[in-house]
Amino acid sequence: MARVYNFSAGPAMLPEPVLSRARDEMLEWRGSGMCVAEMSHRGKEFMSIAAQAEADLRELLAVPTNYKVLFLQGGASTQFAAIPMNLLRGAASADYLNTGSWSKKAIAEARRYGQVHVAASTEAERFTRAPRQDELTLSADAAYVHYTPNETIEGVEFPYVPDVGDKPLVADLSSTILSRPIDVSRFGLIYAGAQKNIGPAGLVIVIVREDLLGQTLPGTPTMLDYKVQAENDSMYNTPPTYAWYLAGLVFEWLKGIGGLQAMGEINARKAELLYKTIDDSGFFKNPVEPASRSWMNVPFTLANPELDDTFIKEAKAANLTTLKGHRSVGGMRASIYNAMPQEGVEALVGFMQEFERKHG
Ligand code: PLP
To answer: Residues in domain Aminotransferase class V (predicted)?
Structure first.
């Protein structure tokens, strides 16, 4: 069977050159006599893989030297707890922006460890836009400000980085990291589950400014203490070695295509084509305010929801898979992360136009 265009929100497609390379190196990694998954994490081969992956990620994102880059486990959801445990640092509260399903989860988890002040919310508008800078009601005594730059389920993306004065800005970049250049120095902490733009599930990346380390809440598990992880090069215990290796191959692939500037241009073109197709049709609709539309996750509905199942079925027959929207919002969602080629989006757009002609 041919490979399909997989529009899943995650785990998502990986670049084909990465998969081919992993296949070629599966039985025997570069003279080591073994697969990367069989290597000791403390052996020189894996240590070199780990160090190269970190160096390449630092280069891609231009991470300043006063930031630690951690390769951890437990997904972005574990970070919902680790962040207040590490960053409240004696303060009673933190500011959170409530902009969709994932920020809501982050807020609920943070409330287990401290007070949360919701500094903006678009829930009354069913999360169809990002709040504007002048709508943020930041509090003077907050330890940090948390937000979700890209809400994977609602398909809402901030078109700007909020200005939060001298407070550390904490960003859940799970579904938009590496999609274009960012200025890391604007953030106190960035975290991202790997299974969208980084690599396979099982790895979460944390990029944290050094001065924020070392003041965890009493009772913080050792594994969730960023300082411990930083001092141990993310190897306090056995790290997710194979996922780390595959992430390294993805970083190398990104460098090869010209880095995040080039990736950003490709992603902008893909998103523009899909939104234009939706907006030009009388049949498909995207509910998000144009300025806040996600480059990575594009939800859309059909004029007649009774055709949803037919759409999914016919799309699958055309090798376009995993287009069903999240169960909480319904409709369709096309996730078009870095590894989704332009041809995949073109195939989807062609299919949608044909579907409208036949059923619209
Ligand atoms: N945050 C965002 C923005 C996400 O899209 C996801 C997963 O899809 C998560 C957090 C949760 O990630 P994980 O499953 O790695 O815990």
So the answer is: 4-348
